[in-house]
Amino acid sequence: MRARPSETELIDRIRRAAERPAGREVVLGIGDDCAVYRPRRASGDLVFTTDMLIEDVHFRRESHTAAQVGRKALARGLSDIAAMGAEPRFCLVSLAAGSWTDGRWIDGFYRGLLALARQTGTVLAGGDLARAGKLYCDIVVCGAVPRGSALRRDGARPGDRIYVSGRLGGSALGLAVGKGKAWRRHVALQPRLALGRFLRAKLKATACMDLSDGLSLDLRRLCLASGVRADMQAPPRFPGATLEQALHGGEDYELLFTVRRGTRVPGEFEGLELTRIGEIGRGRPGDVRLEGVPLHPGGYDHFRA
Ligand SMILES: [Mg+2]
Fold this sequence. Notes:
14 strands, 8-stranded mixed beta sheet, binds magnesium ion, 6-stranded mixed beta sheet, single chain, alpha+beta, 30% helix
């Protein structure tokens, strides 16, 4: 039997097959949190991301309310907008409503989605509706950023310091226990939009991404994109979360970023902790060490066997 490729390998394959001719308006293509589009003669860039939310993969109808599912669909996309240091402008939402949904459930879905849209200045500008056995939702979010200033994954250089926002592992813990503070953390993730803009405009972060699939896997991706390696210490943990959950648990949606050595990073931003967890080094790209020991990427990969 042939080995199944990982999600990272598949993305690489698609990226190689999809040509992006030089001189076109798409200045950053596949592989970052968002693509970057630069309209001719415009002062700013537009960033785009798309995300799927699938029943029994990303949520369960028994444990999530309709409003929570709607909110999550948009929040995941907004987290990618935050990772670029951008400001959300509009979204497009395609929903294949599960056969079990009724009008009330669908109203609840859009109520949750639109509450977060209003809170973040995101306009729901269109979409599509269909029916399917299970619920599928696909969302496209567009954001804006001053020309050439979007935060990317490929800018980390040896000597840069590595930071994370917040405390990690809360979402994985919430999923495991199904109640309490950690569960609320899991269902009501908060896209770090203001922090992303602060990292871009004030700290001049050299690289940034959101933590969707687990720190060990996402830091490896950042290092691969930048052609560097990383040395890290144990990250700050959500109360009650294990080190495993903090290192490999998905869906924390905090920001992972790097800054030049000597950059003054405050201990917190608007009440959210910013913690230094390591340093970028020269060496085999994608190599990540925890306290000197190679750290195997254990995060979430949809295509892992
Ligand atoms: Mg992302």
